[in-house]
């Protein structure tokens, strides 16, 4: 009798997995086919700068002390100059991050175009065009890492606020500063909106995805949301299936996979009319959260926080109590 029960259980489990797409996506070794190469080259050119952006952000110390000294001693010209000379190169660096977000936005839209176009389904696209799927994953991986670093660095907004206040004051006094050639008023306004977001890169990607959907009226929204939900399902299945996990050669790939899963869930939640947490969602949210909770807490706390604080529909009435409790 016990064996019969076991057989039924296996049937249920198999049926559960079958409800969601599942195949191995080779994040470590996927190479572009001839059909993928043009888009792949275009995205690679953008992604090649991502590591230096992260290193630059990680090394960002800010000009907090110099700014405090200048504010406390408003009549000390030397301290004013010292603060200003410390802030200007930092603002140029912040402009570089912002401009990178614009390049990333275009890259994501090119990828979405390739991964959602007929006649293939999103699942067929991701299975056939693994090198493009890997680049999509790399964009998400970069985005979550960038935003984690930005959230831990309050100096960014303090420096930029000081810069804007000083520029405004000088404009009132009719002074023109060289840096305004680099970061003019319009650019400063756009940068200000970008850095005001808790997770600016993620916001850029969700805006880009929403824009992609609204500009491609002939493409059903499901093509885009199914692409995202398929990616989430594939990552979840790879993380929870020992046979797939054993094919990763590096521990880093596990973390990569978790970041990508969380990234696509957040995008799906922003783009799909009812979001990722409703009963009709094509993402197994309980399964995804369970996979994260099974990892060492210090490695996934940032990802669980991203689900708690940067999704759009978690607090909707349609979200089950169970899911909310899992994210408490």
TrEMBL record:
Keywords: Lipoprotein, Membrane. Pfam families: CYRIA-B_Rac1-bd (PF07159). The keyword GTP-binding does not apply. It is found in: Membrane. GO terms for biological process: regulation of actin filament polymerization. Residues 23-324 form the CYRIA/CYRIB Rac1 binding domain. One of its GO terms (molecular function) is small GTPase binding. One of its GO terms (cellular component) is membrane. Its main location: membrane. It comes from the Eukaryota. InterPro entries: CYRI, CYRIA/CYRIB_Rac1-bd. It is a lipid-anchor. PANTHER family: GH09096P. Belongs to the CYRI family. This is CYRIA/CYRIB Rac1 binding domain-containing protein.
């Amino acid at each position: 009798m016990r064996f019969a029960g076991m057989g039924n259980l296996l049937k249920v489990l198999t049926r559960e997995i079958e409800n969601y797409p599942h195949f191995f996506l080779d994040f470590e070794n996927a190479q572009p086919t001839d059909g993928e190469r043009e888009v792949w080259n275009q995205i690679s050119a953008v992604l090649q700068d991502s590591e230096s952006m992260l290193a630059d952000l990680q090394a960002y110390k800010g000009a907090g002390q110099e700014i405090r000294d200048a504010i406390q001693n408003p009549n000390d010209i030397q301290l004013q100059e010292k603060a200003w000379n410390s802030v200007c190169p930092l603002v140029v660096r912040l402009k570089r991050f912002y401009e990178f977000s614009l390049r990333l936005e275009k890259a994501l839209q090119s990828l979405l175009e390739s991964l959602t176009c007929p006649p293939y389904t999103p699942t067929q696209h991701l299975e056939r065009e693994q090198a493009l799927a890997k680049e999509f994953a790399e964009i998400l991986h970069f985005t979550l890492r960038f935003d984690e670093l930005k959230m831990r660095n309050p100096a960014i907004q303090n420096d930029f606020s000081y810069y804007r206040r000083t520029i405004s004051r000088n404009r009132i006094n009719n002074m023109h500063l060289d840096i305004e050639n680099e970061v003019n008023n319009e650019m400063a306004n756009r940068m200000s909106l970008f850095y005001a977001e808790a997770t600016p890169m993620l916001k850029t990607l969700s805006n880009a995805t929403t824009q992609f959907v609204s500009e491609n009226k002939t493409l059903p929204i499901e093509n885009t949301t199914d692409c995202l939900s398929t990616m989430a399902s594939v990552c979840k299945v790879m993380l929870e299936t020992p046979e797939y996990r054993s094919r990763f050669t590096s521990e880093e790939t596990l973390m990569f996979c978790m970041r990508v899963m969380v990234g696509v869930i957040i995008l799906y939640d922003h783009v799909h009319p009812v979001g990722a947490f409703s009963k009709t969602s094509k993402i197994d949210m309980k399964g995804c959260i369970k996979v994260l909770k099974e990892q060492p807490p210090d490695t996934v706390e940032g990802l669980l926080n991203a689900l708690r604080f940067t999704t759009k529909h978690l607090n909707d009435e349609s979200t089950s109590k169970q899911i909310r409790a899992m994210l408490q």
